[in-house]
Write a structure and sequence with these properties.
The chain is an all-alpha fold. It has a domain of about 55 residues. The radius of gyration is 18 Å and the shape is flat.
């Protein structure tokens, strides 16, 4: 059921984009590259914070496991 709802929501967004209800935030390639770099920097900062928390408070590692894995997947070597 959740999968169906997700697909319906995605279809709704695609239809709105097709109808021209959304405008691009980054108008050119340089702006897109700059924004991507900012987001990668934010992800790396969050990853460093979570790593520090895991080191200082080892008892919370299981609770932060999913967060750690998600951040690692987004801050891998092929990100930029």
């Amino acid at each position: 059921m959740q999968d169906l709802l997700n697909k319906q929501q995605k279809t709704k967004y695609y239809q709105q984009a097709k109808d021209g209800r959304y405008s691009r935030l980054c108008k050119n390639t340089a702006a897109l590259d700059t924004e991507l770099e900012k987001q990668v920097d934010r992800m790396q900062t969050m990853s460093a914070i979570v790593d520090r928390i895991n080191q200082e408070y080892p008892h919370v590692q299981p609770a932060l496991r999913r967060v750690t894995l998600t951040l690692q997947s987004h801050t891998g070597p092929d990100t930029v």
